[in-house]
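Hypothesis: this fold can be encoded by more than one sequence.
Test: take the structure tokens below, design a sequence, compare later.
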């Protein structure tokens, strides 16, 4: 198996894990702390824009290659196994029926707010240095 094939398989597994967490957030038996973490992960992962755009060399893929897998790993450790099993089945069925991942408007909103805050802080920093 080539490196490209391994990366494609890993990306597919991440996609399934994000969907599994999405279904875990909808499960009423999921404890509130893991549910809150999952909501953040799912909102960010399914957002149509990234916090760090992919066109930025090296840094653009840090969130996809490091941040998301670590957060997914933490969330999976916090959710009871029976909820994970149910959610994984639902995610597999979703992928078979829809062939795509859902989009997150909440994620879009979160990333947009973070970007606007960073722009505002940069403006304040520049303004304070020119005064």
């Amino acid at each position: 198996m080539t490196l490209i094939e391994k990366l494609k398989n890993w990306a597919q597994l991440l996609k399934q894990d994000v969907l599994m967490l999405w279904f875990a957030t909808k499960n009423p038996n999921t404890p509130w702390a893991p549910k809150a973490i999952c909501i953040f992960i799912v909102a960010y992962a399914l957002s149509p824009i990234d916090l760090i755009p992919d066109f930025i060399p090296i840094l653009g893929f840090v969130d996809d290659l490091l941040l998301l897998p670590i957060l997914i790993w933490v969330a999976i450790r916090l959710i009871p196994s029976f909820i994970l099993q149910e959610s994984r089945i639902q995610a597999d069925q979703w992928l078979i029926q829809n062939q795509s991942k859902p989009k997150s408007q909440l994620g879009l909103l979160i990333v947009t707010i973070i970007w606007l805050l960073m722009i505002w802080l940069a403006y304040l920093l520049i303004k304070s240095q020119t005064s």
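DSSP finds five helices and no strands in the chain. The first helix runs from residue 3 to 26.
Hypothesis status: open.
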